[in-house]
Design brief:
The complex is a heterodimer of chains A (217) and B (412). With 217 residues, chain A is α/β, with parallel strands linked by helices. Chain A has 8 helices and 8 strands; from the N terminus they run E-H-E-E-H-E-H-H-H-E-H-E-H-E-E-H. The relative contact order of chain A is 0.21. Chain B has 2 domains: 194 residues, no CATH class; 146 residues, no CATH class.
Chain lengths: 217, 412
């Protein structure tokens, strides 16, 4: 018997939005996120990114899209443990052949944006959870992608750090980035302009907050 | 627009970066990396030292054999391998003189030999009595250790002098110094003027030191009473001229002894080329055999690398997932792991070369065998270990590159 992780979903996310995705575990939100993040392909149906259908695309092209258009932030930070903060942030630039000098400059800038000046040569084990997540955000933005995807970015953080991290996302959104955050905390979700709630592989409800562009439609 | 120079610098930069990444990964598990390399180290070291020692042995054989064996030939009367022959030619002093005049010939010595009883005081010893010329020492590369060998003067004056081997000294004289003593052969008395250095046994078990050498003229006059010669020993100027010299001598002998064109040779000329060739063939076979065994250890080392790389891929699944999530392509991951296994095998190869050189030096010290270390064999071993690294690294690297990023990110 075929199991559908997602079914009957039709949704459009405009650039510059800040979307929170909520729902109980097993509701299909991670699968949805993996497809949006080009880590996975839908077995049927279509996904358009920047107006281009990604259903028939090769693995290599998917890797290029992940590299240039999408930045990931994970619950468990997913930093390379034996490399410094700076080298972690440089990682995405290695795969688009940025010259090493430029890599270093861009990585320092990104670390500065997330407020980690002076921590360039620290290893992840020498940083707090909040600092590690900042490194991860710096890594996500360093190639200047248009979309940031965060899967439970504050799941391992205390409430104070959570709000610090969410303020960074808010600020990035103000600077034009599309932000998509999976969370099950209402405190986190409320930073978004709209909330999508998943249940049993379908979208149960969409709530528009603040001045979401879709709100005006 | 990047200039060509910038592009080149960029690529060099990238290679160095990939190298640093793999070196760092190997450094994290120092002991494991070393143990993995050990297979390659042992393999390369044994290849290097075996090649060095085999080539050394070949060199030694060459020195011992080619110097004389490759340049010498024997002329025997009669047909090859048959006993008493009535039509066999009778070699004489004249043949020796004629052969000496040929252009390729360096030295010629007549040889007469006969088993004889020799007597000193009341002791008797049965030995091989040989008659020859002073060139005997040069032809055999065999010199007296005490006293002197007889000279041309002794030959032309038909002097009753002799040079004896160590076995004769032991059995006849015991602890007495034989130089200047008189021995009796038949009815003639000979003065001992020299003792040959100890040679030992031949490979076929003949005692080469059981010998008494006298001037061939004396042998002819006092022992057999005729001017015939048993065989002629010829040394040519270089090994390359051996075949030409052989055919020249054959034509000369046929002419001198009046053998008509439709008759077969009634003498035969024996060279040691066959033996030399056989020895070299054996040396080569031994080299190939030992080399193959050493290569097997290289292959085993390669399997060790593959094994540990598979473990490494498994352990670093999440790292691979992270790299893929930030945009690493399959080829990026493939190259990363391939470089790691090649670096592993190349470092192993370098250590192996150093160890191989040390081992062959030590072996030379202990056994006295020469060892020939060549750049070629070092390059061969180095190249081979690089190949092993690529060959056994491809499978784990491919496995890493084909990982699903989502599953990889979920791994612990």
């Amino acid at each position: 018997m075929e199991v559908h992780a997602l079914k009957g979903i039709s949704i459009e996310i405009q650039s510059g939005e800040f979307v929170s995705i909520m729902g109980p575990s097993g509701s299909g939100k991670s699968t949805f996120m993996n497809i949006l993040g080009c880590l996975d392909r839908p077995s049927c149906g279509q996904y358009f990114l920047d107006g281009i259908s990604l259903s028939q695309i090769t693995n290599e092209e998917l890797a290029n899209i992940r590299n240039s258009k999408i930045g990931f932030v994970f619950q468990n930070f997913n930093l390379l443990v034996r490399t410094t903060a700076l080298e972690n942030v440089e990682l995405p630039m290695i795969y688009n052949n940025t010259p090493s000098r430029q890599r270093s400059i861009s990585a320092r800038e990104a670390l500065s944006i997330v407020g980690l000046d002076g921590r360039e040569n620290h290893y992840p084990s020498q940083l707090s959870g909040g600092q590690q997540q900042r490194v991860a955000i710096a890594r996500a933005i360093v190639n200047n992608p248009s979309i940031i995807m965060a899967d439970e970015p504050t799941g391992n953080l205390d409430s104070k750090t959570t709000s610090e991290i969410m303020k960074i996302f808010e600020s990035l959104n103000k600077h034009g980035k599309t932000i998509i955050v999976i969370t099950h905390e209402n405190d986190v979700a409320k930073y978004a302009k709209s909330i999508i709630v998943f249940k049993d592989g379908s979208i149960q409800e969409e709530n528009y907050l603040k001045n979401s562009r879709r709100n005006g439609n | 627009m990047a200039t060509e120079m910038e592009i080149i610098i960029h690529y060099v930069d990238e290679y160095i970066r990939v190298l640093i990444v793999s070196l760092r990964a190997l450094k994290t598990n120092k002991i494991r990396s070393f143990l993995t390399m050990l297979g390659i180290i042992i393999g390369v070291a044994s290849v290097i030292s075996l090649i060095a020692l085999t080539q050394g042995a070949e060199l030694m054989i060459k020195k011992q054999i080619t110097s004389l064996g490759g340049k010498s030939l024997y002329i025997n009367p009669g047909k090859w391998g048959i006993g008493i022959q009535n039509d066999a030619i009778r070699l004489t002093d004249k043949d020796v003189d004629e052969i000496q005049k040929l252009p390729y010939v360096e030295t010629v010595a007549p040889i007469l030999d006969m088993p004889k009883q020799i007597i000193w005081k009341n002791n008797g010893w049965f030995t091989s009595l040989v008659g020859s010329s002073p060139d005997f020492v040069q032809l055999n590369d065999w010199y007296p250790s005490r006293g002197v060998f007889f000279n041309q003067e002794d030959v032309s004056s038909i002097n009753n002098v002799c040079v004896i081997g160590e076995t004769v000294v032991e059995n006849l004289f015991g602890n007495t110094d034989p130089i200047g003593e008189s021995i009796r052969i038949g009815k003639t008395s000979f003065r001992v003027i020299g003792v040959m250095s100890k040679l030992g046994q031949t490979t076929s078990g003949r005692d080469q030191d059981d010998i008494v050498v006298i001037p061939y003229t004396t042998f002819q006059k006092r022992i057999i009473g005729s001017n015939s010669i048993d065989k002629i020993f010829v040394l040519v100027k270089s090994p390359e001229q051996l075949q030409s010299a052989k055919s020249e001598i054959r034509l000369l002998l046929r002419r001198v002894h009046g053998i008509s064109t439709n008759e077969k040779d009634t003498f035969y000329i024996k060279t040691q080329v066959g033996i030399v060739k056989t020895i070299f063939t054996i040396a080569n076979i031994m080299g190939v055999l030992l080399g193959s065994i050493a290569s097997i250890s290289l292959v085993v080392g390669g399997i060790g690398i593959m094994n540990i790389m598979l473990v490494s891929v498994k352990e670093r699944t999440r790292e691979i997932g992270i790299r893929m999530a930030v945009g690493a392509k399959e080829t990026d991951i493939l190259i990363q792991f391939l470089v790691e296994s090649v670096v592993l095998s190349l470092i192993g190869g370098l250590i192996g070369i150093a160890l191989g050189i040390t081992v062959s030096r030590i072996a030379t010290q202990i056994t006295g065998w020469p060892s020939v270390l060549s750049i070629q064999s070092a390059l061969l071993a180095f190249g081979f270990s690089a190949l092993v690294g690529i060959f056994f690294g491809v499978y784990p690297a491919r496995k890493a590159s084909k990982l699903n990023p989502i599953e990889a990110l979920r791994a612990e």
